[in-house]
Structures are given as structure tokens and as C-alpha cells.
Amino acid sequence: MTKELLTLRVNGEPRTIAVEPHHTLLEVLREELGLTGTKHGCELGECGTCTVLVDGVPVLSCLTLPAFLGDADVRTVEGLAGAGAPGRGAEREATLDPLQTAFAEEGAAQCGYCTPGMLMTARALLDANPRPSRAEIAQAISGNLCRCTGYTAIYEAIEKAAARS
Amino acid sequence: MSEFSIIGRRLPKVNSWAHLTGEARYADDIFLPRMLYGRLLRSTRPHARIRRIDVSRALAHPGVVAAVIGADMPEKMGIMPSTQDETALAVDKVRYVGEPVAAVAAVDEDAAFEALSLIEVDYEDLEPIFTIEDALEREDVKIHEEAKRANVFKEVHLSFGDLDAGFARADHVRDDWFFFEGNTHAPMESHSAVAQYGGDDKLTLWTATQVPHYLHRELEKVLGLERSRIRVIATPNGGAFGGKSDPFGHEFAAALLAMRTRRPVKITLDREEVFYAHRGRHPVKMRIKTGVQKDGEITAVHYQSWLDGGAYASYGIATTYYTGALLTVTYRIPIYKFDGVRVYTNKPPCGPKRGHGTTQPRYGFECQIDKIAEDLGLDPLEYRKRILQPPNSRTVNELRITSMGLGECLDALQRRTHFSERRGQLGRGKGIGIAGSAYISGAGLPIYWNDMPHSGAEIRIDRGGGVTVMCGTAEIGQGSDNVLATVAAETLGVYPSDVHVVSGDTSLTPVDLGSYSSRVTFMAGNAVRDASLKLRTLLVGAAAEKLGVPETRLLSAYRRIYDQDDPEKFVTFADAAVLAESKHGTLVAAGSYKPPKGIGGTFKGAGVGPSPAYSYQAAVAEVSVDLDTGTLVVDKVTTAHDCGRALNPPNVEGQIEGAAYMGYGEIIGEEQVFRGGLHKKPSLLDYKLPTSLDTPALEALVVESVDAEGPFGAKEAGEGPLNPVIPAIANAVYDAIGVRFDETPITAEKILDALGKRDNRGVTKKRIGPDGLGGDADPNRALRRLGATTAARERRVAGDGGQSPPTG
């Protein structure tokens, strides 16, 4: 297979890479760009673990071919916090996405493996609907499987982040 | 005002931030220079002799660097030293579809994947065995030649008291059969391992494992490499639930390929392979006979279980014992007999899943307790309270009970759900059910006999007041790193965020037996507490000298060591560290924990069941059944759990809710089932995990009995809360539609069947479940089936020499 030269915009940065055209966005993010924050759970589009945002819309990166992305804005969990903001403690918390802080406070990440995909899905939800009801949250994350939490803490975290935004 | 500065506060886990920013490094996130990608070839046959394996075409494929087969690692291995019946890759014979047979390493994953199809395996099919009944009877088919009787892996019989006399004293005897379907863990992270073999002839294996220490031992045995040359690092597990607590073929294959190539090798299983790696919940058939007096007092219990173990031992010997061991710790049972049999079948090996071996009998027993309450006209919640095993007592099978909060759990549930007023009052199609349970806070014995500690911890304090805790536990999402940090921080008087946790690294951390049997909070917590107290003594001594205040008056909290009579008189923790190091030298202390002696019996088989403390829990489920479609909706599960003390309440609540979710999934539809040896649903689309839209409202009620031996009084919270949810839902369904579900899962088809709305045209059933070992009331069925399968085999043998693919 011949590799194709491709420029992707990931977390606001242009990245030019040579990729096998059949490799998925998931593989390219993890293996070519070193963005291992995006996880894989099935690579068949069944679990939502690999969710990233493309122009603000949650997509399954395991079913997305990079060649079709053009200059779309790809956002991964690494790009969720305020870009490049240094600091620690309260200062850093100001730069974290309110979802990240709320997930930590509510214990919404247990093993943390579904968390990046869950955060990206939740971010898209809050961008479109800043005050979602619990039913709307449940609907929004229904494509993201979590085996640890029973979803309760995730609902509470998303509600908390919404209330703070 | 709490007596604690850290314990009981709703603080984020210390490892949260890594999880939430994508920084956490799971095994598959490791990429090393020159790394090769490995893949496993898996058996396509449920039971076959391997006549020949040829990897030469695979090796010739561009990009392929090395290949290994079973004969390269023929040493037997397995988690339990007494029952090692597995090899890293199959040697001579395969015993289930999906068993690893060979492994290749290539420069990229595509090449490795392509190479698999170039490996030639010549199989000679053998007749497979798929059911418990066949496994018990078929002497002529041996999955393992070593099995003494047919395909029986283990048979246990334990008897406590005169059973006949016990039943003779009963006013009422119930005799019920149950079946619990097998299911799997399905953690979101698939298994993954990266091996590196250095120029110094040392092997490092990063792997998603719950048991780095046990794996360390098995690697030595299988690879023939001294343990001093092996380092196992348990990476953060993306969920495990028991599914990553065996040594696995891919771990050995990655290691051997790395040794052969002297390049790092990564093997990550794909989702389908995770279903074959399995080690999940055993399918168990059970018969429970319980005698009671008019007032409900139990006079005797005879519990029998038949476990479908799959193709290999795994923890099976412990699982078998666990089905009988813990029934006794919840309610008073004066006379008890337990018979257990685990058989081999040609399916992926079963093993420990959250609640290990206790989930199935607990389901059966709690359903039966519900029936007994009804027979006697008692409220099921009040009835349970009436027959509680008392705290600080011994059970009939000699288990030591200390703190016991099941009564408080039941009270908490009654207050919260008004169960007793609502039961039977919700109208047809709506129901409420209850069940109780218990679980161990760590197994009382290690899996290999030794007198060493079960958990060791080492703590170092640096000159800036930083604290490093090193312990061999594996962080699997249960929050063990945070437990270690919390116990150290509370004891020393710093914040959890001041603590660096190094866990699960056999070169850096003292041995902890691993993250299984819900042992970490209790055992590693006590080890960390032990080490922390030693250092605290040095710090407080140095501070007392400096402040001129007696040590007994000093407290440590919030990074200060201060005079409790005058809190403004203090030295900072960092200053105290400098003073103490000046006086005593480098500030390092080790601590360890071993369960006390005498917590169990001394009879053969007494090793499984004892624990330094038992957690207790109960659940109330509220359900709605659609009488037209058979759809079961669980509206809410409320679980009360006695965790001793909640070291970190959000984490404890998360364990309780997560366990309720997992239990709910097991009874609503998850099933690891097969057709002719082929897994019917090895994908996350077909294997129905509950999504957010399916999952009931979950509520956790924390009960604190403050155990005298637990670290700050804590006991386990990870596994026990799963157990009561399943029977509570079954009992709620009975309340809703008057049908007993004595088998899991409770599907819409089964509900429609019971309601007479399937193909039985209005003939309703009072009960869905087995009536005997053969699965129906006809005692001759097993015999007829035996005859039929024998005839079929003979036809095949006569027809084509037994070469045709087996049919299920």
C-alpha cells in the first residue's frame, strides 16, 4: 500500500503525516501523532471509546478515514483543556475544561478508559445544549459504554459542569 | 467535626487527573523504539489434536520478524499452582475455539495480521463436550487426560453437622433448582502487553494485569528465565473485574518474541479475542435444600453446585469452593452440607468475575429465602433481619465473623425505599424485591503456600515533605492508588496530592498479592498504615524535641505537626522531615500485612472462605414488566453496603453503583453462550452491555460498621455490592408478575413464555428454571442424550473416519 501525505488539523495544530489510506483516524492519532489519550474499545464502532470531535461533532475515530477530513478541526482529549496554559492548583483548574474538574470531583472516571470518549461526547452535548436534562444526557452518552460507573457519577459530573459553565 | 483530616472527605482520586487529560499510560499506549507488533493465531476448533503447525510461510511474509508456537513454551502454567493445566500457546491439542495456537511478530500490525493466515495448522478433530451433563457422563471423551472421572475437574464435599437431623427438625423444607448463566467481564480496555528484552538479558513486561506478582512467578516458570531477570509492571487497567487476573498466552508470547528478536514486542487483543480470553462467570447449576422452623429459623441447608468450567482450570478450584463457602456468613445456619463439582467443557475457560463464585449461589439462596418468607407469611426484609448471623461469631463452617452490618443495611433500605409497605402493593406489572449478601475483604490465604506477608508497602519521605508510597497493588480502576495515598496521607498528616504512588512494579514495589478478592483496601491499606506509622513516630519524635512538647500531645494533619492544646505551636511536615532525617538518616519504612491465624477452620478445603473481614450488603430493586411485550425495565436499584468505613466516599459509592450496574447487566441479558463451540456473540454489539439508556437509576447507601482490624475500619467495596442486585431483581419480578425466575438471564422471551404469550398459547407458568441437572423434569433425558450423541459419534466415525467438523 502506498502512503499518502496528509495534513490534519488536530487540537488547533497543523500536522502533516504520511499515512496508509486505509488506516483510521484512531490509528493515525495514536500511532502517527502520539495522541494516545484517544482509546480503542472495539474498533468496530460499537462502544464509543474512541470518540473525538470533528468540527465540534462527536465521531467514532475508529470508523473515520483521515483522507476524508480535509481541514476539519479535530479535537481529542489532549486538546480539551485550555491550550498551553501553564500553572497548577487553582490556576490550572481554571484552564481545565469544567467537565474534567467535575469528572474528578464526582468520581466519574474509575478506570478512566472510556473517559476520553465520554468527555468529548459530553463537551459536544454542552456546546449544543448548555443545560441538558438527565434524560438528554443519557441520550447523548448512550453510544459510549462504561463498565465501571453505572453512569450515575457521569450524569452528576456533566450536570455539575453544566451548572458551572 | 471529623476525627480525620482526609478520610471520609470527598476528594478527587490522586490518579484522576491523568485519566481526564489523556496522560494515563495504559499498556497499549506504550510505543517503544524498534517495537514489533505481535498477533495470536487462535484455534478454529473446539476440540482437536494438532497434528502439525508450520509457520514457515508466515515467516517468509514481508515484515514478519519472528514466530513462536506452543512447543516453544511447553511448560504447564496457570494461576493456581495445584491445578496448572494450561500452556501459553496450545501444545498438541486445542480445547476451545479461540485458544491461542501460535504468535507472530512483525514490523507493523498489518503484516502481523496478514501473516496469521499463512500459518498452517493441521487439526484432527475430536468430539467436543459442551454441557455439564455430558462432561459428567462421557468417560469416552477426555478434554484433559488427567481427569479421573469423565471430565470432572474438581469435586468437593464438605459436611458440618447431621444433615438428616437438621431437616428432621424442620417444619418446612424447600428444595429448589437454579441455573445461573455464564457471562463475561467485558472491560473497555482489551488485554495488552509490551515486552522488552534488554542487552543486559533482562525482561520487562508492561501488561494490563491484576496480578503482577503471580505473573512474575509464571513467567519464570514458562520462560525458564530467573525471576531476578524479570520485571513485571502492571499498567493502569482499563477495567478488569477479574478478567485480567490469570497469566495469559499473549503475555508469554510477547515475552518470548522479545527475547528471540531482542526488540520490544506489543500484543494487544482485539475485542473478539477478549471474549475468548474470558475467565468470566461460571455457568452454575444449583440445588438448594433448606429446612426452616415455623418462625423461619433455619435448621439445615444442603447446597449443591455444578460448575461449567470451560477448557482450563483458571481459579476453578477456588471458584468451586467459593460457591459453597460464603453462603453461611449472612444468616444463621446450624447444619450445612456443600457438594460442588466443576467440569471441563470445550469452551473458553471460566474464572473469577466480580463476586467470584459467590454470585451464583447468592442468587439462588436469596431467591429461596424470598420463597421461604412467602411460604411462612413473613415480610422478606424482616425475615432476613430475624435470622442474621451475629457479629463476632463463628459460622457453621468455622469462618470468623467480626463486624457485621447486614442488619443496618436492611434498615437503611427500609428507610429509603419503604420496601415493606410497598411490596405486593404496586399492582400487576410493577414489583419490588430485596436480597442480602456478603463478600470477603481479601482471601485469607495466598494462592501459593507461604508464610510471607500478603501485602508489603514501602514509604519514603523526601526532604521537601513529599511522600512516596510503593506497593505491589495493581490499579484497575477500583481506586487502589488512591486508597494507598489516602491511608498514607491521613496517617502522616499530609494531603493525598502530596503522595506519589508507585504501584504494581515487581522491581520497585514490595510484593502485594494483587488486585483480586477485594483485598487491596484491607490488606494493602494495613501495610501502608503500618509503614506510615513507623515514619510518623520518627517525625513526631523530632517535632516534639524541637517544640519542647511531649509526643503524646502532638497531632499531624494539613502538612503540620502541631500541639493539640495549642495548634499554633507547630513544625511543618517538611521541616519535621528534615529534622527526622538529620537525626535518623534516610526516611524509609516498610510495612506489611498478613491476616491473623485462626480465622477459618482446619479441615481440608478450609482454605477458601476465610477473610479478615466480611463486607455486607443488601439491595432493593424496583421493576416494571410490560405484560404484552415481556420487556423488563428495572426502574431503580438501591444498594446499602457495609464497607466498614468509607475512606473516600465518592469512590465507595462509585464501586457500589458500578457493581449494581454490572449485576443488572448479568440478569437482564448478558450471556456468554455458544453454538457448536462457537461463541454466539463475541462483539460489543451482540453481547448486550447495558448502555446509559438501559441502566436503572442507581443509588448507593453507605453503611459504616468500622471494622476493628481494617485500616481506619475499612472493608471491601468492590465486589460484594454486585451480589444482592441479581436476586433482588428476580424477587421484584416475582412481585410484579407472580413468576419465579430460577434461572438467569430474565429475558423478554422467558417472561412471555411464563405469561403464556409465546408459543404456549395462554398456558402460564409459575416458574422458569431447571428441575434437575438435565435441565428438565425428565430424569432419563441425560441418558437419552448420551445415547444420541454416542450414536451420532459412531455414525461419524463409520462415515468419514471422524474427520468431519463437529456439530454442536
Average predicted local confidence, pLDDT of chain A:
93
Q: What's the CATH architecture name of the largest domain in chain B? A: 2-Layer Sandwich
Principal-axes geometry of chain B comes out as globular
**pLDDT < 50 stretches of chain B:** 775-780, 800-808
The total beta strand count of chain A reads 5
Could you name the ranges of chain A where pLDDT drops below 50 across 5 or more consecutive residues?
A: none
In words, what does this structure look like?
Chain A is an alpha+beta fold and 165 residues long. Chain A is globular. Chain A has two domains: 4-79, Ubiquitin-like (UB roll), CATH 3.10.20.30; 89-164, DNA polymerase, domain 1, CATH 1.10.150. In chain A, 35% of the residues lie in helices and 15% in strands. Chain B is of the alpha+beta class and 808 residues long. Chain B folds into four domains: 16-22 and 451-593, 2-Layer Sandwich (Aldehyde Oxidoreductase, domain 4), CATH 3.30.365; 31-126 and 188-240 and 244-277, Aldehyde oxidase/xanthine dehydrogenase, a/b hammerhead (Aldehyde Oxidoreductase, domain 3, Alpha-Beta Complex); 154-184 and 280-444 and 602-741, Aldehyde Oxidoreductase, domain 4; 778-808. Chain B has a seven-stranded mixed beta sheet with strand order 3-5-1-12-9-10-11. Chain B has a five-stranded mixed beta sheet with strand order 7-15-14-13-8. The longest helix of chain B has 28 residues, at 520-547. The termini of chain B are far apart.
